[in-house]
Specification:
single chain, about 375 residues, alpha/beta, Rossmann fold, 7-stranded parallel sheet, 5-stranded parallel sheet, 14 helices
C-alpha cells in the first residue's frame, strides 16, 4: 500500500510539473524565448549552487530581453520530451553553471547530456562549469561518452569556470567553441555592495574571529580530525575559529533566492577572516570583503579557479595548514581591500560573447 501511495504522489508531482511547464509556455508567447535548464528548487541545500541560481536570472534580465522559462533539475526528466516538442528554432537554451561537469556528480552529467542530445537542433549555452573527469576506468568511460554526445551538437557553446577546465574541454570537444569565465556568483558584486554596504565596508586591523568554511562532501580532503587540528592551530595562535559549511537547511524561494543568500553573507561578514576549501567560500569572502585563505581540494575546482583572483589583494592560497597563521598575519596589515569590477571585466563581455555565438551559430534540423 505504501508503494502504491508513493507512486501516486510521484505521478501527481510529474503532472503538476508538466502543467506548470505548459502554463509558462503559454504566458511566454511565441518567442524567441530563453529556456534555463537544470536550475534549483527552493530546498536544494548547497549555498554556492543557490547563489548561482540567484545570480543567473539577474544576469539574463540585464543582457537578454526575452521571456525566461526555467526547468529545474528535478523537472528535466519529465519536461524534456515536452520541451523537445514545443521549442522553436529561435529559442535559446542555457544550462545551469557550477562544478558538476564530469564524473564527480555523474547523474547530473547524464542529465546534461540527455538535454544536449535531445535538443540537437537548438542553440545551447553551457554557463561556466568546472570540468573534471577522474583518472579512473569509470572517469575515462564518462569522458568518452561526453565526447561522443557533445561533438555531435553543432550549436553548443561551453564556458569553462577555470582555465584548466577550459583546456580539458578543448581537448575533448573539438567541434565546440570553448571560452573561459569565472563563477557567475561574482556577478552579484554590485547587488551585494548595494544591499550590504555596511557589512562590506567593515574593517578590522586585529583579526580575532576566523570562519572555517570546510567541505563535508566527497570533494573534501580534510576529515574531522584535520579540521579540528586546524582549529587548534588557530586557537593556539590567539584566534577564535568556528567550523561551518555551506550546506544549509533553508528555503530559497524562486522569486527571491538572493534574500535568503543575504542572511548567510551577513553571517560570513561577522567574522574577521575566512579559511576555506570551497570555491564559494572564497567567492562569498570576496563579495563581502573578508580576507580569505584558500586550501587545496581533490581537483582543480578551486586551485585553478584561483587564477581569477590575482588582482584581489585580500585572498591568499597556501599549500599546507602550517602556513595558515602566517597568511592571516600578512593580510592583517592591509589597510585597503582591492578587487576587480567583475561585471565590467567578465560578465558584461560574457553576454557579448554569447550574443556573438547566437548571431553566428548554425541552427540545425530538429
Amino acid at each position: 500500500m505504501k508503494n502504491v501511495l508513493k507512486k501516486i504522489k510521484a505521478n501527481i508531482k510529474i503532472a503538476l510539473w508538466k502543467t506548470n511547464f505548459y502554463r509558462r509556455l503559454f504566458i511566454s508567447g511565441a518567442g524567441p524565448r530563453i529556456f534555463y535548464l537544470m536550475g534549483l528548487g527552493d530546498r536544494f541545500p548547497n549555498l554556492g549552487d543557490q547563489a548561482q541560481a540567484a545570480a543567473i536570472p539577474i544576469w539574463m534580465k540585464k543582457h537578454f530581453h526575452m521571456p525566461v522559462i526555467e526547468i529545474k533539475n528535478y523537472e528535466v526528466k519529465s519536461c524534456l520530451p515536452l520541451l523537445k516538442k514545443h521549442i522553436n528554432k529561435n529559442d535559446i537554451v542555457f544550462l545551469h553553471s557550477g562544478g558538476n561537469f564530469g564524473d564527480d556528480w555523474y547523474t547530473t552529467q547524464l542529465m546534461r547530456e540527455s538535454i544536449i542530445s535531445s535538443l540537437i537542433g537548438n542553440r545551447i549555452i553551457q554557463l561556466p562549469q568546472t570540468i573534471f573527469y577522474s583518472d579512473t576506468e569509470s572517469g575515462n568511460l564518462a569522458s568518452v561518452r561526453s565526447k561522443e554526445v557533445i561533438n555531435k551538437h553543432i550549436s553548443l557553446l561551453i564556458f569553462g569556470r577555470d582555465f584548466q577546465s577550459t583546456e580539458i574541454a578543448k581537448k575533448l570537444f573539438c567541434n565546440t567553441p570553448i571560452l573561459s569565465r569565472p563563477d557567475m556568483v561574482l556577478s552579484l558584486q554590485e547587488t551585494v555592495e548595494n544591499q550590504l554596504s555596511k557589512e562590506v565596508s567593515r574593517r578590522t586591523q586585529n583579526f580575532k574571529r576566523i570562519l572555517l568554511i570546510m567541505r563535508n562532501d566527497k570533494e573534501g580532503i580534510y576529515g574531522l580530525d584535520d579540521k579540528n587540528d586546524i582549529a587548534k592551530i588557530l586557537s593556539n595562535a590567539g584566534y577564535e575559529p568556528r567550523l561551518w559549511d555551506t550546506d544549509v537547511n533553508d528555503s530559497f524561494p524562486n522569486q527571491d533566492k538572493f534574500k535568503t543568500l543575504t542572511k548567510y553573507l551577513k553571517f560570513i561578514s561577522e567574522f574577521d577572516a575566512v579559511i576555506t576549501d570551497r570555491y564559494h567560500g572564497l567567492i562569498f569572502s570576496v563579495l563581502v570583503k573578508r580576507p580569505c585563505v584558500v586550501l587545496k581540494t581533490h581537483n582543480h575546482k578551486l586551485t585553478s579557479a584561483f587564477d581569477w583572483f590575482d588582482n584581489v589583494n585580500y585572498v591568499k592560497r597556501v599549500n599546507s595548514t602550517d602556513d595558515l597563521v602566517a597568511a592571516l598575519t600578512e593580510m592583517q596589515g592591509f589597510h585597503e581591500y582591492v578587487s576587480p569590477r567583475w561585471s565590467d571585466i567578465h560578465f558584461d563581455p560574457m553576454a557579448i560573447e554569447v550574443k556573438n555565438f547566437l548571431a553566428n551559430s548554425v541552427i540545425g534540423e530538429r
